[in-house]
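Mods, move this if it's the wrong board.
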Amino acid sequence: MIAMKAIPKLAIKKMTLIALLSMSLLVGFAQTANLVHADQLPQSELDAIDDWPTWVASACSTVASTTLTGNGNGVEAYNFFISHGLTPIAASGIVGNMTEESTGVDPERLEGYYTGEQPAESSEVQADLNVNDDGWGIVQWSPPSSIITAGESQGASAGTIDTLSFQLGFLYSELKTSYSSVIPQLNAAATPEDAATIFLNGFEGGDPSPTRQAYARAYYELAVNNTPLPPSVPVSYNSGGGGSSGSSSSGSSSSSSSSGCGSGSSSSSSPSSSSAYQDPLRSVVGLTPNRIDEGVDYTGTGTVYAMGNGKVLSTAGGGWPGNVFLVYQLDSGSSGGPAAGDYVYVAEDCTPIVGPGDTVNSNTPICTMYNGGSGIETGWAQAPSNGDIAMAHDVYVGHDGLSTAFGQNYSQLLQSLGAPPGNQDLSTVYPGVSGGTLPPGWPTW
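Not the wrong board. Structure tokens:
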């Protein structure tokens, strides 16, 4: 196995490139640092990878696919890493680097070109495919073949490799394999600036300018303290794969998705459409997923909404932290969506702002989440006549922290709506103890 080594970007670019650039573009080049490197995964590792993220039910088993949410690519990238168990400091450090490297986390950014995005199949990228001093993509893989050839070998099309979602999945896979020491270091970082430096030294191998540290701090303050990004922080809204393009310091919320499966097979199951629902956690600041147990645990602050049309049945629950166990029943019939008639609960650190008998829909705030030490737990509840208990209670009792089938199912639903899924790695394993099974006909996502 021969690993490509980091090659510093040359101060003087190829003459063919210089001939194409105007003086204004040369000035722009001189002001922008895109000095990065990422090794191509050896084919043996690509063939053996069994933990490439498969975040949607129809995803292939070896190529990344996800749904991303957020206001701009930097926020989408931050949410992605949070959903995979990184701390807010660690996620901010990575995003700070990517913001510097690709001018706002742009998946089609080719080093030295500022007239527009350059997708994988463009003549400019193809000409530089194996030129070690040119970078491409969100972390400026150098050469571009480091990701393009590897992705194509796994069945991904060029249009898929162009996308933010695929590149985040590919990067995460690299961090889990060839750069496996980086994530623990990032999660142990004390400040966003430290995390930015760790990612720079452990993965990027580029320019140690303080700009990336400043960007990391800006994203951390946005996530944790809801402080708007300064105008000086570039933000791309180009999701790639033929999506919108451009960089700005402001913009509207976006959601992008991509399947890296090419012509591969899809899941044999038939997931239910969750279009009747909205992400109930979409306004929570600093939303951080924790373990999957009876439901899904989260920390953060802000408004929690009802998922869809329904009616509040109760708000209090003995035995739950804070005595909060808010339950609403989704409407029966088509207005209630695929889970019509089922019960949803939100418990623990969330102050109810609705009461029993109130009707709700996906735009109805139901409680205010706060930092109380427990976070919230949300999932499928049993009918209130059975008590203040979750659907998974029977298999969960006596096994605190067990990842249950109902908890996993609810996590998948939230993920399909754009929320980060729960982190099953934080759940407790009980040898020989099953998390149960879903009853026949229960909706999947």
